[in-house]
Amino acid sequence: MPASLAPLLAVEDLRVDFPGGREQVVRGISFTVARGECLALIGESGCGKSVTLRTVVGLAGGVVNASRLEFDGADIRRFGEAQWRQIRGGRIGFVLQDALGSLDPLRTVGREIDEPLRLHKRLTRAARQARVIELLRDVGVPEPELRAAQHPYELSGGLRQRALIASAIACDPELLIADEPTTALDAVVQTQVLDLLAQLRARNTAILIVSHDLAVAARLADRVAVMESGRIVETGPTQQILRNPQHPYTRSLIAAAATVHAHDKIVVSTAARAPAEIEIEVRGVSKSFKGPDGQLRSAVANASLALRAGQTLGIVGSSGSGKTTLTRIILGLEQADAGEVLFQGRPWQTLSSADRRAARRRVQVVFQDPLSSFDPRYTVESVLGEALAVAGYKNAPQRRARAIELLELVRLGEEHLKRRPLELSGGQRQRVAIARALAPNPAVLVCDEPVSALDVSVQAQILDLLREIKQKLNIACLFISHDLGVIRRMSDEVVVMNQGEIVESGKAETIFSAPRHEYTKLLLEAIPVLDVSAVAAA
Amino acid sequence: MKHLKYLAWRLAAGAFVLWATATIIFVAINLTPGDPAITVLGSPEALPTPAVLALIRSEYGFNEPMHTQYFHYLLRLLHGNFGESYRLHAPVAHLIGQQIGASAKLILGAIPLALGVALVLAVSTAKRARWLTGWFDFIEVTLASIPDFILGLLLLLAFSFSLHLFPSSSTQGWTSIILPILTLALPIAARLSQVLRRELEEILEQPFIVTARTRGLSDSAVRLGHALRHALIPTLTIAGVLFAGLLSQAVVVETVFNRQGLGRLMSDSATNRDVPLVLGIALLATLVNVVVNIIIDLTYVIIDPRVEK
C-alpha cells in the first residue's frame, strides 16, 4: 500500500474503562480516517463517542486499551506527555461543542488563537499576530482585527464557533476533530460552519466529527459510523447508511430524525373549530437596550401577536433575533418601552401586584436546560411539591397524590418521585420540568427551546408529549425555537423574527409552503434535511 | 478613561466610609451621658484637674454649638490632628507614627507570604490524588482553626526554645520578625489555599481547560495560564476580608512575641479608654480597610475585564 493511501488515523478494538465505573464506556471499536476524508461518529448522548474522540488526543481520562492506535504510522499508545503535547494542537486540532465554554472567557479571542501558534511554531510576535488575523479572515469572521481584540462573551454564537475552529486549525493540523461543532447553533449559522469544515476537508485535512444529528453527518461526512452504548453497530459510506440502513438502531435514529423534520403534520386542524378565547395578546410592543457603545439598539420593534387557548404559536428566529426579549415581556419579566401585553384581556401593567402574582401562576415556563433550573439537592417529589404548595395544595398527602397524577400525565411513574435531577436522563428531566409547569393548572405554557438540548429520538417523544398535553388540557402554548423542523411540527401559527422585527406571521402551513419574506426563505433553505423519501423507501 | 472613572468612584466611596467612621465616633463621644470632656479622658477615675478639663473643653470646643463642634472636628481630622493622649502625654498622630513602622513590617511581610504559600499549595495540589489533597486539607483546617496565640506559642516552643533558631522576643534584627510573620501568615495562607484549591478544582473541569490541553499546553501551563486567573477572583474576595483583619491579629501576635507595634498601643488605648488614641487607631483601621478594598477592586478589573461592565 503506498504511503499516501495508508490511513492517517487507525483505531482497532479500542476499549476505554473508567475506574469505579460500572461498565466499559467504549467496548472494542475500530475505524480509520484517511487524509482528506471525513468520518462521522453518530449516536445519542452517553454512547461513548466523546470519549473516543478524547482518546485520540490522549485526554480520555480513563484506562485505554487497543490492539492498534496509530496516528500517521506512529503508535500513540506509547506516547509520553511530551510527544502528546507536540501533536495536540500541532498535528491534531480539536473543536469542542460549546464555543462559549470552550474559549477562556478571560482572554481575548486573538490570544486564544495565538496560543497554539506560540506553542508549535517558531514565529515572531508580529508574524503570529498577522497569522491570527489571517485565520479569522479564513474562517469567515468579518472585521478580524476588531474581533481578535474582543472577548468570547462579546461575540455571537456563530462567530465564537468560528474563532474556536480558527484556534484548532491555527497550525494547519492534518486531522481536525470536532465534537458536536454545530449543536448550539441555529440553522443559518450551522450551514456556514459546515461549509467551512467542508472547505478544510477539500484542503486535504482529515475530519473526525461527532454528532447526534444525522442531517449534519449527511451534509459533511464521506463515511458514517453509528455508535450505540460503546460499540459501532454499523459503518459505511454516508449515502448507503442513510438510504439502506441495516442495523435496527440506525433505522430508529433515521426514523426519529425524519419525524422531527417531517413535512406532514398529524395535528388536528383548528381551523374548523370556532375561534378559541384569546389568552395572551401582544399589542405593538417595543423594547430597546443600551449597547456597549451607549447607543440604543432595538431588541423588539412593534411586535403584535395573539395566543389562543388550545393553540400553539411558534416563534422562530436566529439567536439575537429578539425571541428571548419578546418572551420575557410576555411573561411580564421585562417592561416594554411601548405597547402592552394583555393576559386574559387585562394588561399586565394595570394589575395590582397580588393579581399579577396570581396571573403569573397561570402562565408557566419550560426551559431548555432543566438541569440548571432544578436545585440538584431536590428530589422530584420536592420539586413538584414546591410548585403544588404555591398552587394551593395545602397538605402533604394531597400534594403527593397530585404529584403522582402529574407524573403519569408526562408518562413517568411513582418510582421517579424519590430521584434527584442528576439521577434522571435528559428526557426524564424535561418531563419533570413539564410536570412542574403543569402543577398550578396553567392557562398558558411557554416552552423556550424545550428540546434543543436533547437527543433526536428523545426530542420526538417530548414533542409528542407536549402536543398530547396541549390537546388534553386545552392549554395555549407559546413555543420558542431556532429549529424550524421542531416549530413546523408543533405550531398552528408561526411568527418569524429577525433583528427584533416580526417579518412574517400566519398559519404554519402557509409559511412553510409559501414563505413570502426573504429571511424566512433563507431560514427554510438552511435546514439540513434528510432525504426522507429515500428513508421511507428503504 | 473608563479605568480612571472607576478608580475615582472607588476613591469617593472610600472617602465616604472614612467620613462615616469619623461621624459615628463623634456621635458616640457626644451622646455618652455625662461630661464629654470626662469621656474624652476615659472615665471619672482619671481624676482630671480642672485645668486639664478646661483645656479639653476649649480644644474640642464643647462650649460651642454642636454643628460648629462637628465642623471643627472634621477640619482637625483633615489636618491630621487626632488630638492628644492625656495618659501618654503626646499627640496621637505622633504615637501612631512611632509604632506604625514595626506593625507595617509585620503585616507587609505576612501578606506576600500568605499569598505565596496559598498559591503554591493550591496550584500544586488541586485535582491530584485523593490522599494528597486529603492530607493538605487536614493541615489547612488545623492551621486555620488554631487560635493565633497558640500557634505563636507552638512556633516559639519549636523554633526558639528547642531548636534555638530564632529569638523568642525582641524587635531587633531580621531574625526576630520571622516567627511573628509566620504566626500571622500561616492561618491566612491555609484559608486562602482551601478556597483557591476548591475554585481551581471547579475551573479545571471546564471545557475551555480541555480545549487548552488539546492545543498541547503542559499541565502547569494550563494551571497557571488558564485556571489560576479564574480561581483568583473569589479567592481575592476572601483575601480582602482576611487582610483587613490583619491589624487586629497583629495585636495578639505582638503581645505573644512581646514586640513593639500598633497592637500594643491599640490594646493599651482600649483598656485605658484613651478616647483620642482609640479615635486615631479606629480611623487608621478604617483607612487600611478602605485601601485594601480599593486595591482588591482594582485587581478584579485587571483579572476580569467583565467586572467594569
Mind sketching the topology for me?
The complex is a heterodimer of chains A (about 550) and B (about 300).
Chain A: E1 9-17, E2 26-33, E3 38-42, H1 49-56, E4 63-65, E5 68-71, E6 74-75, H2 81-87, E7 92-95, H3 99-102, H4 109-120, H5 125-138, H6 144-148, H7 157-168, E8 175-179, H8 187-202, E9 206-211, H9 214-220, E10 223-228, E11 231-237, H10 238-243, H11 248-260, E12 278-290, E13 296-308, E14 312-316, H12 323-330, E15 338-343, E16 346-347, H13 353-361, E17 363-366, H14 370-373, H15 380-390, H16 396-409, H17 426-438, E18 444-448, H18 456-473, E19 476-481, H19 484-490, E20 493-498, E21 501-507, H20 508-513, H21 518-526, H22 532-537
Parallel strand pairs in A: 3-9, 3-10, 7-8, 8-9, 14-19, 14-20, 17-18, 18-19
Antiparallel strand pairs in A: 1-2, 1-4, 1-5, 5-6, 10-11, 12-13, 12-15, 15-16, 20-21
Helix pairs in contact in A: 4-5, 4-7, 5-7, 11-18, 15-16, 15-17, 16-17, 17-18
Chain B: H1 2-31, H2 36-41, H3 50-60, H4 66-78, E1 84-85, E2 90-91, H5 92-125, H6 130-145, H7 148-162, H8 175-203, H9 207-214, H10 219-244, H11 246-256, H12 262-271, H13 275-303
Antiparallel strand pairs in B: 1-2
Helix pairs in contact in B: 1-4, 1-13, 5-8, 5-13, 6-8, 7-8, 7-11, 8-10, 10-13, 11-12, 12-13
Keywords:
heterodimer, A: 538 residues, alpha/beta, Rossmann fold, 6-stranded mixed sheet, 22 helices, B: 309 residues, mainly alpha, MetI-like fold, two-stranded antiparallel ribbon, 13 helices, 2 strands, flat
